[in-house]
Structures are given as structure tokens and as C-alpha cells.
């Protein structure tokens, strides 16, 4: 299916057209059941197969080892900011690599439950770079080290994953999960809200090493305890069934596209194309320098705020949607998640070129 517009929204973001066509075809009558997947019990065999396939496909995509649980939860990445300390802060100590607004929020929640140590922060320059991290500063009884692998608002990406040794590494991968290869073994816990790179809003994926389950704070609400959801295979209460179904279709699509490594090649190419154009133009400039540049959220600007706004309108008329930067950064931002194809980025470059001329 050919789309009418190219959608550069930071999230909720575009989904593969092929996935939505399948969902549309199956919408009223899921695989001959006579019912929509929206209507069936989460305990039915029909849904059981949906959730099992989704998990199996994600396990294959990320090569998730057996000693990790995969959970499909609600509440967005923001609920994980609290859920992580409630479950992992046994010694009441957590360390943070503060690289953006979302790291800040994770720190603010963790502070309620124990001591937080900010190892390094780029807040001084509005998160426009990734600050160096000195792991020697981490005290040994730290319960976890929290990082944000891609900073959606500011357009930065961690080009290196810290080796935190025995301290579990917790990663917010909301805006770049499945966009590049990570070794799950390097992490104690990975979480991601689905609505950026892998599905619709309403579902959060958590990948957690099994030994980290079962030592939640005594006041931890049952719904916020990883153990509750792991014991019941994400079916303790009614899960976001339609979001799990759609995300499962995106996992299948990702496999069909050649998996994460194939998409990584395409993602690098897409980002490079846009950065190269921006760098070679005297009209546009990029906010972030190498090696900190995000492949998913490309932040840039024209010489002045007025032209930024004009460009947003001009681009929308040409079918390039949602290029306005986040209000805390200003300027422009193009989000190039997995579902954005190379043609979309080539077209965006044409439109940007036409505007500058
Ligand atoms: C969008 C985003 C969040 C917040 O996600 P919600 O699902 O809205 O809670 C957290 N972290 C990162 C990196 C994000 O991009």
C-alpha cells in the first residue's frame, strides 16, 4: 500500500502499512473465529496464541536468553520509572546516566524509594551531548545503573553501552528498541513503551533477568510487581490485548524484513542521508555532533525560529508530517523509526532542499 503522507512523528508514530492492512483484513473476523480480536477473552485459546507468538517472535528478534522473562504491561515507559526502583532497589541505591528528560524522570521517581547517584549529566547544556561516564564512581552495593539508549527529545544516542559488571544495567529503550542490535545479556532489565518503534500506544515491553524478580519493596502494589506478571505470563489481569496483537504483527513484519540487523543497516543509511544533507547545507544545521547523533530522532534547525515554523507548514503541505521539534529544544525533528522507509527520507530531503531554495 502506498501512503498519502510521510509521517515523521516522534510518537505515537507510523506503523508499517503492511501490518495495518493485515489488521484491517482481520479486524471483523479474526482468522475465521467470527469475532474481532478486540472482542475475545484474554484467556481464550485465540488470544493465547497471539501473545505466545508475539513473545516467541520478540525472543527471536533480540536473541533473548532463557533466563530472561518477557512481559507485556501497561502504563507506558513512565510507569517503569517507578516500577524499576520498587522492584530492584534492595539496598536503596541506584545510579544514573542522566542524558535527557526521560532519564530525569526516572531519577525523580527513584528518589522516592532510595538514594540516587547521578554519575554524569548533560543537563548543563540542555542535553545536547552525551556526557562521559566514569564507572569507578559507582559504589559496589548499587542496585542498578539506569541508562536511556536513545534520547528522543534531544536527538542523542549512546554510542557505547557501559560495562557495569555485577551491577544490573537497566535500559529505557523506548525510542530505539529493535532499531539496532543489542546483546540482551549486557542488561538486567530493558523496557520500552511500544508507541515509538514497535507498535501502538498502550503497551510496554519489559525484558528482565529472572534473578531480579522477587525482591520487590514490601509496599510495592501487586500490579507493579514484576513477579505478579511473570508468574501469570502477563495475564494476571486483563492485558492491552489489541496493542499486544498489533505489536505482535510488527514483530512478525520485522522478522520478514530480515530482522534487527537488516533494519539497523537501513536505519544507519536513512540517518546518514539526512545528516549528510543537513551538514552540506548552509541553511540547515544539526544540533548534535558525532558520535552522539541519534539514528531515530534527527534534530536540526534553520537559521531562525520563524523559518523553522514556516518549514513545518511547507513540509506538511508537501506531505511530510510532524517535523516540529520538542518545545524544550525548538527547531525541527524528524523521527525515522523502523517503519520509515528510505524513500520517505529521500523525499524529505527533496522537500527540505526545495524549501531552502
Ligand atoms: C516517549 C518516551 C518515554 C515516555 O513514554 P510513555 O510511554 O509516554 O510513558 C520514556 N522514555 C523514552 C526514551 C521515550 O522516548
Question: Can you tell me about this structure?
Answer:
With 357 residues, the protein is α/β, with parallel strands linked by helices. It has two domains: 18-256, Type I PLP-dependent aspartate aminotransferase-like (Major domain) (Aspartate Aminotransferase, domain 2); 258-356, Aspartate Aminotransferase, domain 1. Helix content is 34%, strand content 16%. It has nine helices and 14 strands. It has helices spanning 17-26, 45-62, 76-88, 101-110, 226-231, 241-256, 259-280, 305-317, 342-356; strands spanning 6-7, 68-73, 93-98, 115-121, 144-148, 150-151, 156-157, 169-172, 189-193, 204-209, 285-286, 297-301, 320-321, 332-335. Strands 2-10-9-8-5-3-4 form a seven-stranded mixed sheet. Helix 2 (45-62) packs across helix 6. Pyridoxal-5'-phosphate binds next to helix 3.
Key features of this structure:
single chain, 357 residues, alpha/beta, Aspartate Aminotransferase, domain 2, Aspartate Aminotransferase, domain 1, 2 domains, seven-stranded mixed beta sheet, three-stranded antiparallel beta sheet, 14 strands, 34% helix, 16% strand, globular, binds pyridoxal-5'-phosphate
Amino acid at each position: 500500500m502506498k501512503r498519502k503522507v510521510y509521517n515523521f512523528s516522534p510518537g505515537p508514530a507510523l506503523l508499517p502499512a503492511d501490518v495495518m492492512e493485515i489488521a484491517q483484513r482481520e479486524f471483523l473476523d479474526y482468522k475465521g473465529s467470527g469475532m474481532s480480536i478486540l472482542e475475545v477473552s484474554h484467556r481464550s485459546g485465540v488470544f493465547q496464541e497471539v501473545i505466545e507468538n508475539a513473545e516467541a517472535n520478540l525472543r527471536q528478534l533480540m536473541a533473548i536468553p532463557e533466563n530472561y522473562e518477557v512481559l507485556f504491561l501497561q502504563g507506558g515507559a513512565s510507569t517503569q520509572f517507578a516500577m524499576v526502583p520498587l522492584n530492584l532497589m534492595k539496598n536503596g541505591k541506584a545510579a544514573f546516566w542522566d542524558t535527557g528528560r526521560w532519564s530525569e524522570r526516572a531519577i525523580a521517581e527513584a528518589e522516592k524509594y532510595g538514594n540516587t547517584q547521578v554519575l554524569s549529566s548533560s543537563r548543563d547544556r540542555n542535553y545536547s551531548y552525551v556526557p562521559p561516564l566514569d564507572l569507578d564512581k559507582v559504589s559496589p552495593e548499587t542496585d542498578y545503573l539506569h541508562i536511556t539508549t536513545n534520547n528522543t527529545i534531544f536527538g542523542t544516542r549512546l554510542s557505547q553501552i557501559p560495562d557495569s559488571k555485577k551491577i544490573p544495567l537497566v535500559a529505557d529503550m523506548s525510542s530505539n528498541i529493535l532499531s539496532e542490535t543489542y546483546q540482551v545479556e549486557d542488561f538486567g532489565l530493558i523496557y520500552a513503551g511500544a508507541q515509538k518503534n514497535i507498535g501502538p500506544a498502550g503497551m510496554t515491553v519489559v525484558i528482565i533477568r529472572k534473578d531480579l524478580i522477587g525482591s520487590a519493596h514490601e509496599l510495592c502494589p501487586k500490579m507493579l510487581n514484576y513477579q505478579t506478571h511473570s508468574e501469570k505470563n502477563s495475564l494476571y489481569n486483563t492485558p492491552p490485548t489489541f496493542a499486544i496483537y498489533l505489536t505482535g504483527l510488527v514483530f512478525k513484519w520485522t522478522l520478514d524484513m530480515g530482522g534487527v540487523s537488516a533494519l539497523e543497516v537501513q536505519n544507519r543509511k536513512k540517518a546518514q542521508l539526512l545528516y549528510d544533507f543537513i551538514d552540506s547545507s548552509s541553511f540547515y544545521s544539526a544540533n548534535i555532533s558525532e558520535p552522539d547523533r541519534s539514528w531515530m530522532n534527527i534534530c536540526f534547525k534553520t537559521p531562525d525560529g520563524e523559518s523553522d515554523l514556516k518549514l513545518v507548514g511547507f513540509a506538511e503541505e508537501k506531505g511530510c508530517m510532524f517535523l516540529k521539534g520538542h518545545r524544550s529544544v525548538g527547531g525541527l525533528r524528524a523521527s525515522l523509526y523502523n517503519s520509515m522507509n528510505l524513500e520517505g527520507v529521500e523525499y524529505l530531503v527533496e522537500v527540505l532542499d526545495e524549501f531552502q531554495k
